[in-house]
Every structure is written in C-alpha cells, then in structure tokens.
Design goal:
Layout: H1 11-23, H2 28-37, H3 42-51, H4 54-62, H5 66-70, H6 73-77, H7 84-94, H8 99-105, H9 117-127, H10 129-136, H11 142-156, H12 159-175, H13 181-194, H14 203-206, H15 211-217, H16 225-237
Helix pairs in contact: 1-2, 2-12, 7-10, 11-12, 11-13
C-alpha cells in the first residue's frame, strides 16, 4: 500500500469520503480514504506499542509480509479443520474474496514511497481484517461489518472506524426497527476493549492454531446480540444481507 507518513487529521477529506460512501455503499475505496484522513498519529502510537513486544521487535527486523501467507491458498486449504488458516481459506472462498483484492481497493496514492516500519505495520493491520472476522465471529453482512469496525476502533483507536460504526448503526437501525442494532455495535466495541491486543499478534503462527484456542488466548468474547439479530433477519427476509450500510473492506 503506497502511503505517506502524514500525521495530520484531514476532516474535510473525511467528510468528503463519508458523503461518497453514503451515496455508494459499495465504494470500498472511500472507506480507506476516510480512515486515512482521520489516522493522525494513531499508527505511530500502535507501532511504538508493537515495538515493546518480543514478537514486534523480531517482526520489525525481518518485516515478513502477512499477505504472502494469506495468498498461499493451497497451504491454507491443507490445514486441519477448525484452524484459523483453514477457516480463513473457507471464508474467502465462500465470499469470493482474495487478500490481494483488499490490497487493490486500498491503493490511495500512485506515487511510490520508501518502505519503512510504519508503512509495513499499516499494511499488516489492513491485511488482518478478514482474520478478525473469523476470530470475532462477525460476518460480512452490514451489521457484522459495523460490529467489527467498532471492535477494531477499540483495538486501534482509529477515529475513522468510529465514524463508520456510528453512521452504519444509524442506517441499519432505521432499516431494522425494533432490533438492538446500536447495542450490538456497542457490544462489538466493548469486546474489542476487553480482548487482548490482536493488532500485535503473530498471525503467521496463529494460522495453524484452532480458532477456539485463539479466542481463549486473547479473551475474545462471543457476540451475544449480533447472532440473534441476523437470525431474525434471515428468518424474515430469507437472507442476512440486503439491508443498507456503508461497505467495509472485507
């Protein structure tokens, strides 16, 4: 991902991206523009925290690309059932997604920049998005994405995630009246706060581990409200998707 090291907030650019996203919920590029506009010094603070961990220091020395491992579908498909890597492979196949597709959608600038620790860390954080879907249990339907970005806001402090969660909650709540949509999204935030810091995890090693063991290791609580809402939507409409919300990278 070609990015700059600008640490200023850009509220006008954020508003512009949010307006575009509300007009076209499938425009994933606007999600990245919004997050980038409100990033500020958040990535640098997370990177400093990452450097304090044993894995973080080792990873920064070698800068392995998580994308390389996530793109090796044959290796992931060969892992045992129940492991994170196998679950990721099945998730991406079922949703007709690819790790490379998320990278392509996130390309914000054409001018190349020199690689550094902050850019590497930012790319790694982007590439773990679909892994977080699996660990948290939130789907790619609009409410699942809203709950996950609330979880991610708690984990990262990225203001763009908070903005998306709030706007998505408002739109989904209007579409699903009488259901605890906002409470489900706030539950995602609370679970992100109480969980271990997944942003700094050794995901390459975790791919071989059972999903349930990872949830226990990082104290990721199961969602209580989200599954019930989705079950009623499926019962009423015959599908979990189809209700409006801003699109998210998935």
């Amino acid at each position: 991902m070609q990015q700059t090291t600008d640490t200023r907030l850009h509220p006008i650019a954020a508003c512009r991206a949010m307006r575009q996203l509300l007009r076209d919920r499938g425009n994933t590029r606007q999600v990245f523009l919004l997050i980038d506009a409100l990033r500020g010094k958040t990535t640098l603070r997370q990177l400093a925290q990452f450097r304090q961990t044993e894995f973080g220091r080792a990873a920064l020395a070698d800068r392995p690309r998580l994308l390389d491992r996530l793109s090796d579908r044959a290796s992931l498909a060969a892992l045992p059932q129940g492991t994170l890597g196998r679950a990721y492979y099945e998730f991406m196949e079922a949703e007709n997604l690819s790790a490379e597709g998320l990278v392509e959608a996130s390309q914000l600038r054409a001018a190349p920049v020199a690689a550094d620790d902050a850019i590497w860390f930012r790319e790694r954080s982007r590439e773990m998005h679909d892994l977080l879907h699996i660990v948290t249990g939130y789907g790619r339907d609009p409410l699942g994405e809203a709950c996950l970005v609330a979880f991610s806001f708690a984990q990262t402090g990225q203001k763009g995630f908070a903005v998306i969660a709030v706007f998505a909650g408002q739109r989904i709540a209007r579409t699903l009246p009488g259901r605890p949509v906002r409470r489900a999204i706030f539950e995602g935030y609370r679970h992100g706060r109480s969980a271990g810091w997944l942003i700094g995890a050794d995901w390459e090693a975790l791919l071989d581990q059972p999903v349930e063991a990872i949830r226990k290791q990082f104290a990721v609580q199961p969602a209580r409200l989200y599954p019930g809402i989705i079950a009623t939507v499926r019962h009423d409409n015959g599908a979990a998707a189809g209700y409006p919300a801003p699109a998210m990278p998935g």
